[in-house]
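If I may wish for something, please sit down with the protein I am sending here and say whether tokens and residues agree:
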Amino acid sequence: MSYAELPMHDWLPIAFLGLMGLSALIYVVLDGFDLGVGLLSPLSNNDNDRNLMIGSIGPFWDANETWLVLAVGLLLVAFPVAHGAILGALYLPTLFMLVGLTLRGVAFEFRAKGPAHQKPRWDKAFFAGSLLATLSQGYMLGKYVIGLQTGTYAVLFASLVALCLTAAYGLVGACWLIAKTEKNLQVQAISWAKKLLVGTAVGMLAISVATPWVSPRVFDAWFTFPNIIGLAPIPIVSIALVLGLHFILRALPDAKDSYRWVPFLMTVALFVLAFSGLAYSFFPYVVPDQYTVWDAAAARESLMIILAGTLITLPMIVAYSVFAYKVFSGKATPLSYS
């Protein structure tokens, strides 16, 4: 389908696709770092350091998941046909993701409030929930990228994406810890980030090569002239960010801790570029190769009502998120309910 054939005058479905995509991107960045911290938590043998790691995400983790609820809610009400197709095909990984997020939330509370001798058990549950949620999200993304295909190759590709997303979440989690911690734990986080940067870069390269191979439409979107020239900045800037991250991590920690947020911001920029590439690859489809945004959209009257509600809800979510991050902007302290 060429862009000349698209009903671009009908802007409401595109607006909702943009809102849904923005919510998904914010979720991946925000819940990505706290899932990443959960993945890294077993690597510290020091209980005090592990308490600081958990404390660094304590004020944020449940609010971060609001963006997932918003993204799935918009998918349900604005694109009901696509909602049925996607969640119907991804029922099991969605279930596993919800089990992981639930286990993670329960473990988070009980490790702080339960008996001290049970704390190691809840630490393991926290890691298990983080890992299960991350792998499930990566598998769902991989299946979505190839149009919800089935078969051996589809499972292998989705599994590759699951491993790559796990490395990427670990990277952004380590970069968060670089900014929010100090001394020995910060040094450990820098070491973790160096290793995970390699895994993330290899994973992004593997997915970039594999995706056009499994999807002829994506190949045509990226590797035909003049698209290949216009899209060249995305991989070029991504490579520059990976190299820049490598050198800044080698230079840390600095004496004044002035550059502590630089790795996190560069990793977020890398996520944004990857998301932009995916968005370009799939537009105008909300379900790749099956439903365009106009095919799957709800009635225009319904969309107008939903848009009014979204324009009220979205600023409230942004406001309390900004407030929380501002209030707890300093270095992490151990999580306590006393």
Summary: The chain has one domain: 10-327.
